[in-house]
Amino acid sequence: MNLVITMSRRFGTGASIIAKELSERLDIPVYDKAYIEEQLSGHKYESEAEAIRKLAEKPCIILGRCASDILKDQSNVINIFVRADKPDRVRRIMQKEGLSYEEAREKVEKTDERRSAYYHEHTGRTWGDVNDYHIILDTSELGVENCADILMRYFRKLDYI
Q1: Domain range spanning residue 130?
Q2: Would you say residue 38 has pLDDT above 70?
Q3: Which CATH number does the domain housing residue 145 bear?
Q4: Pick the residue with more confidence: 41 or 60?
Q5: Looking at the predicted structure, is the pLDDT value of residue 79 above 80?
Q6: In the chain, how many domains are there?
Q7: What DSSP string runs through 116-153?
Q8: Are the beta carbons of 41 and 120 closer than 8 angstroms?
């Protein structure tokens, strides 16, 4: 298996939980913003794109960082976008971070705005465009706890694992 999974997500969808579960089941690492920035600060790579391409030489899961665009020409890459209804995302952030409804709503909105701007700045395209992903998961409909199971069945059916 040389499967590389990119996972873009709206803030508060539970995507990091899904990534962690997949990581454990597939026995592959998850790389997020903090890890990639650590690689850059250690001067191992000149750019995020270079770091992501190097990490994707082995099976892994990459959260965000425009990885779906950076790796778009690789046939072993599955691009996933995770979404959820805004009230569900706000509730999840309220519980996770102990915030009021208004504080959580503002954090969700501002984080989504930053992610959208970052994606557009680095790709020139619209973040969350369905044409950029192989799979879109809606955790409001499917439940966070079911998404890893759904993905594992999909990977097996297509002989990715």
Answers
A1: 4-157
A2: yes
A3: 3.40.50.300
A4: 60
A5: yes
A6: 1
A7: HHHHHHHHSS-TT-GGG-SEEEEHHHH-HHHHHHHHHH
A8: no
